[in-house]
Amino acid sequence: MRAQIVGAIGGMVAALALTTAPAYAGQQQVRQAPAAAKLATAGTSGGTAGALACGWSPDGPTGQAWYNHCGPTWVYIRVERHGLDGFTRCVPPGWTHLGSTSVIKYAWYNGHTC
User: How far apart are CA 46 and CA 38, in angstroms?
Assistant: First the structure.
């Protein structure tokens, strides 16, 4: 019983971390996500996340910002920009390119479908 409670709490903490802070802790995996996503979703209309992180995903080596929506429906995300106003964008399941990380600061699911 204790192991189940500890596992559930760990899962909630991990989910909270993915939705409230940039995913810098696992940077090596995040950096590889966009290239892997292109392979995983080639020839499909969206694809699934598999073992890759859901949500905001800055790709350090290329300087590009991505958002990986792991759910089955289109959703609105909030995109924050460095020194500019943010905006809301409707994204499909799978990977969405947001632009350069020099412009895009962060993105998150705002709780609404589109």
Answer: 10
Annotate the chain with DSSP letters as a single string.
Answer: -HHHHHHHHHHHHHHHHHHHS---TTHHHHHHHHHHHHHHHTTSSS---TTSPPEEEEETTTTEEEEEE-SSS-EEEEEEETTEEEEEEEE-SEEEEEEETTTEEEEEEEEEE-
Q: State how far the Cα of 16 lies from the Cα of 30, in Å rounded to an integer.
A: 17
pLDDT tens column, 58-114: 988 899 999 999 999 999 999 999 999 999 999 999 999 999 999 999 999 999 999
Give residue 79's identity as a one-letter amino acid code.
V
